[in-house]
Amino acid sequence: MAITLPAPAKLNLMLHVLGRRADGYHELQTLFQFLDHGDELTFERRDDGQIRLLTELPGVDHDSNLIVRAAFLLQQESGCRLGADIQLHKRLPMGGGIGGGSSDAATTLLGLNHLWQLGLDLERLATLGLRLGADVPVFVHGRAAFAEGVGERLQPVELPEPWYLVIAPQVSVSTAEIFSDPELTRNTPAITVRSLLAGGGRNDCQPVVEKRYPQVCNALSLLNKFVPARMTGTGACVFGSFPNQGEADKVRRQLPATLPGFVARGSNVSMLHRALARLGQEVDA
Known about the structure:
alpha+beta, Ribosomal Protein S5, domain 2, 2 domains, 10 helices, 10 strands
């Protein structure tokens, strides 16, 4: 028994930092949308309870990987005695701000919930996911959303679904480093969903990242020659939107070979959830 599922990328179309919380985290407002591009995971059931990630990631210890941690957490919280062999086809850059690790963790939770026939609902899985990372719940729910708190309070939204060109500078940005920077703006006034969708919003982390990482600053400058460019999350990836795939591909072909990137369609419903629906699992919002 084996299944293969996608772990889609996400974009933060805006990211406001409202203030620092008493627990040391930051109060945020952000707008998530998924991309039809991402990692891919294959899960094969084991009857002996072992969790084995068969794909090594440079610099990441097996038991520290979010995929393995998600599998162990689901196993422990559900009391399930089954295990899994997991293979990862990695496409998304690490430290890129497009949710690679968090998306892999969410796909693991939903994939093993299906493979082990646990029957846990999305709210329960999202609660588990929050213990792994603030971005995991949005991937579990699989809907474009306006998010508040540390990113866990989600309000589904309907957004245009343009094509995006995403540029991935060859640098890994530390989220903790950016949020601890004394120059980070931490007093942006709260915005309503209505006013946000009418147009507006920025990424408060972008000026800090541009100053610390010239590779990101250069990528933004290059993309801005063709289309308004913005950084996603705490970087390093930057993006611009296009009305169709052809125009996005045309700009991509003009990028230097030393600056990798990809073109993908924006999606309000995660391709993970579409894949699960094809497997016959009812996925509720």
